[in-house]
């Protein structure tokens, strides 16, 4: 095969979580900040926590040094946390992960989500053992669209960019993968008006990876 490793994003790629988070965050925010529109929250999809914090402060018209607002956000995020990730796992995930392993490909996960969310998802969905490398953007200096998270992952796998296929959905994630020098397969999602034009491949679901690889 042309590619020797497949690197997955998590939210919107392995799990259908993005609208779940977005809707619940909006529902709580608008109670306190009624001028915020849900469409204004769309850009946070695929953002790291650091960049998202800046945007949220701007939308709420609160200064960045307002720690009380940070506490409000944390309460909102905690109240909207996914309790059972098996309910949002895309149905084809285990099948495609198993197939990739059978083909001898390396598999990695590179997500902007917090470490505890990634860990909970992997354990609840019983897919941790498929991944040779797991990394959270929470621990990095730079966030997507910066390529750092993918560069580190490729180094861990011992692979060159041209040997890797990155599976993403968001504008920032796709830009990060392209900037890292790898080919990107974009999982189509028309709910958030993502710009997926820079992706080399476009797939309806993860089963499309088979066609890309073969």
CATH topology of the largest domain: Rossmann fold
Helix count?
A: 8
Task: Estimate the global geometry from the Cα principal axes.
Answer: globular
Structurally, how many domains make up the residues?
2
The CATH class assignment of the largest domain is Alpha Beta
Q: What is the strand tally?
A: 6
What is the structural class?
A: alpha/beta
CATH H-level superfamily title of the largest domain:
HAD superfamily/HAD-like
Note the main sheet: 6 strands, parallel
Strand content: 5-15%
Provide a descriptive summary of the structure in words.
With 214 residues, this protein is an alpha/beta fold. It has helices spanning 18-32, 49-60, 67-79, 93-102, 115-124, 148-157, 171-179, 208-213, and strands at residues 5-8, 106-111, 133-136, 164-168, 183-187, 201-203. It folds into two domains: 5-16 and 85-213, Rossmann fold; 18-79, no CATH class. It is built from eight helices and six strands. The chain has a six-stranded parallel β-sheet, sandwiched between helices.
Summarize this, please?
This protein is α/β, with parallel strands linked by helices and 214 residues long. It has 8 helices and 6 strands; from the N terminus they run E-H-H-H-H-E-H-E-H-E-H-E-E-H.
Key attributes of the depicted protein:
single chain; alpha/beta; Rossmann fold; 6-stranded parallel beta sheet; 8 helices; 13% strand
Break the fold down into its secondary structure elements and pairings.
Blueprint: E1 5-8, H1 18-32, H2 49-60, H3 67-79, H4 93-102, E2 106-111, H5 115-124, E3 133-136, H6 148-157, E4 164-168, H7 171-179, E5 183-187, E6 201-203, H8 208-213
Parallel strand pairs: 1-2, 1-4, 2-3, 4-5, 5-6
